[in-house]
Amino acid sequence: MEGVITYDISPIKGPLVNAFLILINTLFFNLKLVGPYDAYPRDYSQALLNEDEVMFDFIIVGGGAAGCALANRLSEESTWSVLLIEAGDYPPPSSDVPGLYFTFFNSNEDWKYYMENDPKACQVRSGNRCVLSRGKVLGGTSTISNMRYWRDIASNFDRLATPLFASKVVFDIFREMEGYEGTDQEQFQYTYGTEGPIYLNVFNYTSPVKDLLQDTYKAIGYNKIPKRKFLGYANHLTYIKNGERFNMAKAFLTPVKERKNLFLTKNTEVDGVVVNVPLDNKVGGVNVSIDGVKFFIRARKEVVLTSGAINNAKLLLISGIGPKAYLQSKNIPVVADVPGVGKNLHLHLYLPIFVSIGPCGEQPAAHSKEIDLIRDIFNYLIDRSGGLSHTGINQLATYISVRKDGTTTPNLGVYHEYFKIGDRALMAALDAVDYHPTVKKTLLETNQKKSIVLFMVSLLESASRGEVSLNDTHHLSNPKITPNFMTDDEQWDYATLLSGFNFVYNLTQVETLREYDAELLDINIPNCRNFKFCTMAYVKCYIHNMVYPNPDTAGTAKMGEECDPTAVVRKDLEVKGVRCLRVADSSVLGDIPTGNTVPADAMIGFSMGEILKSKWLKDYQSPYYNTEETPLDPASGISRMKDSD
Ligand SMILES: Cc1cc2nc3c(=O)[nH]c(=O)nc-3n(C[C@H](O)[C@H](O)[C@H](O)COP(=O)(O)OP(=O)(O)OC[C@H]3O[C@@H](n4cnc5c(N)ncnc54)[C@H](O)[C@@H]3O)c2cc1C
Known about the structure:
Layout: H1 15-31, H2 45-49, E1 54-61, H3 65-74, E2 82-85, E3 113-114, E4 131-132, E5 148-149, H4 157-160, H5 167-177, E6 178-180, E7 198-201, H6 208-219, E8 232-235, E9 237-241, E10 244-245, H7 248-252, E11 262-265, E12 268-276, E13 282-290, E14 293-305, H8 308-318, E15 321-322, H9 324-329, E16 336-337, E17 346-357, H10 370-383, E18 396-400, E19 412-419, H11 424-433, H12 437-449, E20 451-459, E21 467-469, E22 480-482, H13 492-508, H14 511-514, E23 519-520, H15 536-546, E24 548-554, E25 581-583, H16 597-616
Parallel strand pairs: 1-2, 1-14, 2-11, 6-7, 14-25, 15-16
Antiparallel strand pairs: 3-4, 5-9, 7-9, 8-18, 9-10, 12-13, 13-14, 17-20, 17-23, 17-24, 18-19, 19-20, 21-22
Helix pairs in contact: 1-10, 3-16, 5-16, 11-12
InterPro entries: FAD/NAD-bd_sf (IPR036188), GMC_OxRdtase (IPR012132), GMC_OxRdtase_N (IPR000172), GMC_OxRtase_C (IPR007867)
GO molecular function: flavin adenine dinucleotide binding; oxidoreductase activity, acting on CH-OH group of donors
Family: Belongs to the GMC oxidoreductase family.
């Protein structure tokens, strides 16, 4: 039978949810009733296998946000052949369903990476280590993400900018990519583009608990974020169209899928980059595996790595591009001595805090009744409405500042999940994060009697940096990801998270929440048993056990000046010491954006297109990019946005 379902749906608990996933995927594959049929470019992997020699002008490694944006831009030039290589498959139809966003942890669409044991994080998890999900599917991590779209704070655009792309140009590129469909401009910090390929909107979702949380934030002075300000609460924009996730492959590949010069090969893993050493140190192409068959694909012009901050570092190291002594210690032939590869891994950190509350206007045990789930499934299939058509209060975020200097830009975000009494989703969520059995039991028992609000405090500007290196040289192996969380000398990261903990505790004391018997939960962490609940020692123990990485990643192939020994790529994102090999996603950023990384990745992929067109197309005048290597005149075009505008 065509399209037999092979998806690994083990993270989902409950036969009914499993049945739904199978149903939705079957409806798509066999009856074409759900999801976009034929939405993506044709797959050339089998055709490539049958060729004797394969060559393309440009090879893009990784079909995530950055790779899709770049493939779109480069294939505009019809005389160029562009190959996009993706290790994963087409997105499964269930990834289109917003309400299933939490089901992709540990699935076939996840690289399922884990980090080295770090005594300051994830100690409550099985194996005492943090996991780090990365999308292994067309659209990359944007296909399995929470769909939030928050670019960054305008004053931080300098951090996203390269010396070749001034911050005002970054703003112009964002606007060109964005297709905001809503009418509520006031809700957002500043104006979003409306004509671009990334469809954006807010979910039409309200609930008593969302109102309750908003009222609580208002009571302590955090109001709905006004236009172009950044402190307060907001309903996030999400990448969504007609009730379905609008992943970055839909945004950038679907509109150009018929281009004759754009080739996609899926289920194709790049095992290494080949460089012509000692001939001319120019990239020659990539080695790939398809169905276990290994072969070489030649690049006539350039190879661009857009495989994300973890996989880019892994690929560079496997290919002999990295710190010389380290490569030699691993018996990898040295192609280029680039000490910074894999260093400077920059992540946001999450501190989850569980608060129980009494009944809040909603029927208890809603999702424990199968009939409710069946109704949600039915409504979604009929007209994309109901409980599966949105991500619930995950869309509500509050940005706060706990800085002592009074600066009004946020350094913490607070995100939310809500579990009604007896909620099936809680078990699925706890299984996904794989907490110690005692903690799971405590939470599930509490949820039999009370609803639970999960506050996820996110450290937006962490000072510490991790590292990506190799466990072994196989391209599919888990790289060695060393977190180094909260290791900054000043202890800012710890202090800020502690302030975040206190912030949530204080919220529970606000009258609005007290009316609902809000109570910070002692979740029975075995490692913290010796400390009295809520003492300083307990809170420290709590933080080190519970903190985990938010899956936004950046920094492992940092861009910098020629003399900067920590820089991996030059200003035009070319890898030092290797001609015509570039990196083009958040890996090149020195600091992770305060906002989400999908917008930043797409923007960098888009920018890479301008750099390559300017180099390879005679007389190409980029509207964004000045080949004189100085930022464009800030007085020209759209003027730069400031937070105070
Ligand atoms: C659970 C979760 C929730 C998230 N929520 C949000 C959110 O709400 N908003 C947001 O903006 N960001 C979110 N993120 C982060 C965001 O999705 C990613 O940071 C972003 O998509 C990274 O984009 P990228 O293009 O750099 O890399 P990726 O999206 O990771 O894409 C890289 C692609 O390269 C492919 N690849 C890797 N190695 C190879 C290889 N050797 N050969 C061939 N192909 C390869 C991968 O399979 C992947 O498809 C979330 C992430 C996760 C995991």
